[in-house]
Automatic annotation (TrEMBL):
The chain crosses the membrane at residues 26-48, 68-91, 112-133. GO terms for cellular component: plasma membrane. PANTHER family: MULTIDRUG RESISTANCE PROTEIN NORM-RELATED, MULTIDRUG RESISTANCE PROTEIN YPNP-RELATED. It is a multi-pass membrane protein. GO terms for molecular function: antiporter activity; xenobiotic transmembrane transporter activity. Keywords: Cell membrane, Membrane, Transmembrane, Transmembrane helix, Transport. Its main location: membrane. It is found in: Cell membrane. This is Uncharacterized protein. It comes from marine sediment metagenome.
Amino acid sequence: MNKESSNKNKGVETLLGEPKKAVMKLAIPMIIAMSAHTIYNLVDAIWVSGFGQDIFTSNNIVEVGTNALAAVGYAMPFYMMLFAIAVGLGIGGGSAISRRIGAKDKKGADNVAIHTIIISIIIAVIFTLILFFSADTIIASIVIDIDNCCIDAGKP
């Protein structure tokens, strides 16, 4: 048995033999991606709230106000939904491509990759059009006291 074959068997044994370890191995990249996205949203909220000082000049950061912070809060679920769809397409497409490559079906792998990209573009265009033309209506249905900054934060 060669080294490459034993490495493949070791991965399968880990996946089937030690489910907790396998789940952790598979979950770590997703945890890192979601943490990075959460940190981005946290920094965005801190920035628009005007909390803290400018590290270069030691001056207070100009406060944009509570409306801007509310706008970030209202827009975040839409971005999280888009992020979840993108991650789902990436994981699903990657899995399908991997299966085709494992079956030595290069044409099938190329076909899946092309279709994944096309579906991603179509979904991006649909969501962009929906949010661009109806962000004000969507935000108005959520927010009682609507402000233009909420609409601006929700548009692409």
